């Protein structure tokens, strides 16, 4: 079984540059590239991020989004790194049930969260 998350975008090359840099700590690389698709693949069992070129820009809030745990407790430093790559911070730090997160958007406005899980949560293999 494979999970592929598809992200509509106007400029697949620019978005690939952003997402490869953003996901660098998770070791993603370019995969299949056949317009209108460009895939970014990480080490198994990470899901593939499929960039799909569409003619229209993002209009409303995403119904599904990525939540990324970069393995750091320092959300502000991670958000600063992503902003230097072209991300925009959307929210202040939020927390619930021990999780802490900040909502950001990629250069085309697609929202995603950078989060820190509670220290009592053990990652599943």
Automatic annotation (TrEMBL):
Taxonomic superkingdom: Bacteria
Annotated signal peptide: none
InterPro entries (alphabetical): Glyas_Bleomycin-R_OHBP_Dase, Glyoxalase_6, VOC_core
Membrane-spanning ranges: none
UniProt domain VOC: residue ranges: 1-117
Name the UniProt record assigns to this protein: VOC family protein
Organism of origin: Streptomyces sp. 900116325
């Amino acid at each position: 079984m494979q999970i592929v998350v598809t992200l509509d975008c106007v400029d697949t090359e620019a978005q690939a540059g952003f997402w490869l840099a953003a996901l660098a700590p998770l070791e993603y690389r370019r995969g299949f590239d056949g317009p209108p698709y460009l895939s970014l693949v990480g080490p198994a069992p990470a899901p593939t991020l499929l960039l799909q070129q569409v003619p229209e820009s993002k209009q409303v809030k995403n119904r599904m989004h990525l939540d990324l745990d970069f393995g750091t407790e320092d959300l502000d430093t991670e958000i600063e790194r992503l902003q230097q790559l072209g991300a925009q911070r959307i929210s202040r730090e939020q927390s619930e049930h021990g999780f802490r997160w900040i909502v950001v958007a990629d250069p085309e406005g697609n929202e995603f969260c950078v989060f820190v899980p509670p220290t009592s949560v053990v990652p599943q293999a």
